[in-house]
Amino acid sequence: MKQEQTAAVGTNNELNQHTRNQEIKCLQTRFAILTDSNISDIDKNILESLTSPQNSDNEIGNWKYRVAAVKQIVVYIPSKFLYGGKEILEMPGTDDSDALALDFINKGLNMVDAVFVMCGSSFKICEREVQDILMKSDFLQKWKTSPESSSLMFLAYPEKDAIFQFKDGDINNVETINPLEGEKRLIELEHFCQLIGMPSLPSNMDAAIFTSYILPVLHTSIHAQEGEPHEVIQRQDCYLKFTGVNRLITHLDAFISSLRKIEIQKLQNMLTPKTTEGLSASDTKEIIKMYKNRELKATRENVLIYDYDNLMTALNKKLKAVYASKLENEVAVSFGEEITEAQRKWDLNENKITSLGLFNPYYAGNHRSDTVKIYRIILEDTEQLKSTIFEFLKKEISELLNAFEKDVIELFSKELSSVLGREGDTRIETFVQQSIQDVLSNATEWYFGRLKKPINEKTVGKYLKESKKEILKTHLLKPAYDQTNLNIAKNLAKKKIPQTLMAVKEDFKNSLLEIHETRWKSFQHHSKGNTTIPQPWKVLLAKIRKSSKTENTPQQQPDEDLLEVLKMITAKNPK
Q: In this predicted model, what pLDDT tens digit does every residue of 68-80 receive, in sequence order?
């Protein structure tokens, strides 16, 4: 028995030594390729020192090899996913013990447009805490309201299972992934329906969920093969189309393109040949001649600027009325209904409130360890209001801005008609509209904004949530928490439910008015610039001067390459 053990040990030592020798040979080969160093100059000791921690490297000169061993790192993503200011937000784990990580996840899910749920095999059997966080997130609420503007992706990477590990010659086995993916999708969507409390998904929601198996090991192994990249891809195309990675990239391209509709439309407008009608070169020369008379020009422009400022003042008053009175009338009924619903839910859950600690204002009624969350009882049902409020604001504001644009075009048309003595000539209005439409539209876009406090559903939701949180703390939680008796605290809280919801409405309205002030300053700047002369009028005069110098000059055709790029980014991706 002892002889057998000794023999076994001897055999293991030989195997271990053989393995170490092979590792050294591989490391020598890789090192020579990366550093262009003479392989004969690199002995075992140097290689071992280079794989040791940096602070243990005491030999002079060795560090140059360590630095030279990494020449370049390149990450390439063949997708439009990161175009246009987009970023990938990597989430930490969902360990319940890490409160900071959970807070980061919850805040991240409040602002993203697309979410990957990465599972080992299926969303149905992924960790329960992952499903819970997704279900309670603002992202999912936004997705349910408007699935077309968000992307929910259930991805699985099952390569740890033998049936998903492939090698050259396994093409028939690889082709079995598609049927398996179909079965996985049915199971995942059925489970998702149960989580959101729906018997089935409507077509728009079904289309807004992307599911796929992802085989990153197979995909990257193919791309790491020797040879010209296009030749490798062409040779292994039969495998690559089943790894799921290209499908994912195609889906992301389509989704990101759908979010960039405004930018794409601008590009289309830039590349579309335009013709300006309505005024001849002789007409424009006559206008320029009149405006060369300084006294006459000053008199006419002063009147024009006065009328333009009146249009701006009227627009500002109408916009404020939208936020103040019209919006309040629109949501008053909804908030009234929420009061009734909050009181009903309070009656159902009041017996579950067994501690004054649940009223602690520091946690805003939503502490993650609380079995009963006061925030959800009173205010959770108001989440759907952000979509209603934004759609109302978008409609009302757009109508007012469109009316303002028409008024400006009419004002400038009357001025030119008066100069030319051709009142009522519709061709002049056509010329004015074509000349200043872009600058007017640009000012309108700046009112809605994109960066600082833009008027969109996300901003509306953010300020609604902040109002709910702060008002709940000051109007209900703090007064109740200051009581020494739990029953008195609960009675006081129930009594303050209507007052709290009405205060939320008022605080939210004031927040929206502050957003208007920010957006109005931007609108003013792009409408008038830093001078008293309206920006659209400057653009119109510049167009008139240009037209007076050249008549019927053929416009340059758009670049064919740019047109092809536009076709590429607007083309629908294959399913």
A: 455 555 656 555 5
Q: Which amino acid is at 37?
A: S
Q: Same structural domain for residues 366 and 491?
A: yes
Cβ contact 153:115 at 8 Å = yes
Cα 476 to Cα 364: distance, rounded to the nearest angstrom = 10
Are 47 and 103 found together in one domain?
no
Kindly report the average pLDDT of the chain as a whole number: 77
- For 92, the token pair is 């930490």
Alpha-carbon distance values, 482 to 362, 474, 491, 492, 549 (Å): 13, 11, 13, 11, 78
**Tally of domains within the chain:** 3
| Helix, coil or strand: residue 151 | strand
One domain, residues 418 and 546: yes
419 vs 308: CA distance, rounded Å: 18
**Tell me: the pLDDT tens digits for 166-181?**
777 788 888 888 888 8
Do 401 and 441 share a domain, yes or no?
yes
Q: Are residues 107 and 243 in the same domain?
A: yes
Do 53 and 103 lie in a common domain?
A: no
Query: How much is the pLDDT for 411?
Result: 92
**Residue 409: what pLDDT?**
92
Per the domain annotation, does 334 fall within a domain?
yes
Radius of gyration of the chain (CA): 33
Contact 242, 178 (CB under 8 A): yes
Q: What angle do CA 566, 569, 574 make, to 5 degrees?
A: 130
Q: Cβ distance 244 to 185 under 8 Å?
A: no
99-109 vs 128-136: helix crossing angle, rounded to 10: 40
| The residue type at 141 | Q
Domain annotation covers residue 288: no
Q: What does the alpha-carbon distance between residue 62 and residue 49 come to, in Å, rounded to a whole number?
A: 8
Q: Are 129 and 94 in contact (CB under 8 A)?
A: yes
| Residue 77 in domain | no
Q: Is the pTM of this model over 0.85?
A: no
Domain that holds residue 20: 2-68
User: Alpha-carbon distance 501 to 335, whole Å?
Assistant: 7
The mean pLDDT values, 10 residues at a time, for the chain of 575 residues are: 36 60 68 57 56 48 50 58 59 60 75 84 82 84 83 87 80 82 88 88 88 86 81 82 84 77 66 61 82 79 90 92 82 78 87 86 76 79 72 89 92 88 83 86 80 79 86 90 90 90 87 87 81 86 79 52 59 47
DSSP run (H or E) holding 213 = strand 209-213
Same domain, 172 and 48: no
**Is residue 391 located within the same domain as residue 498?**
yes
Distance of CA 204 to the CA centre of its chain: 19
